[in-house]
Design goal:
By secondary structure, the protein is mainly alpha-helical. It has a domain at about 45-60 and about 70-85 and about 100-124. The chain has three helices and no strands. It has helices at about 1-60, 60-90, 95-120. Helix 1 packs antiparallel against helix 2 (about 60-90), helix 1 packs parallel to helix 3 (about 95-120) and helix 2 runs antiparallel to helix 3 (about 95-120).
């Protein structure tokens, strides 16, 4: 009887542990999906802004226009890199997505900063 109780207790604890892990996995997946939607929306917004600054750069003569064109090409490359990372994230499991999130956060920050630099150059 004593062994039966011990075994029952161990089985119960194992079930609690498994249920807890499943709940954590669901929460991580929801967090990942929320982040993916946020980045997708931001990339769409940035696509429009990049088109706008590209038009401004083409209309701007002199060194400022050349500098804007160079930074605009950099923006396009960064955005494409962000798209690749986002696609990779969608196929990455629970463990690897946080690393990609960190990389995407850095790319998004660089995109925002570069966009501000271009806008400042346009106003010179």
């Amino acid at each position: 009887m004593k062994h039966f109780l011990t075994f029952s207790f161990i089985a119960l604890m194992a079930c609690v542990f498994i249920i807890s892990c499943e709940k954590q996995t669901e929460e991580v997946e929801q967090e990942k999906q929320k982040y993916e939607r946020k980045i997708s929306a931001k990339l769409k917004e940035l696509e429009k802004e990049i088109k706008d600054v590209t038009t401004k750069a083409e209309e701007t003569a002199s060194e400022a226009g050349a500098e804007m064109n160079k930074k605009t090409e950099n923006l396009k490359a960064l955005r494409a890199d962000a798209e690749r990372k986002l696609k990779k994230m969608k196929s990455t499991g629970e463990e690897g997505w946080k690393e990609i999130k960190t990389e995407l956060d850095e790319i998004m920050q660089t995109l925002e900063n570069t966009l501000k630099e271009i806008e400042q150059t346009a106003h010179k």
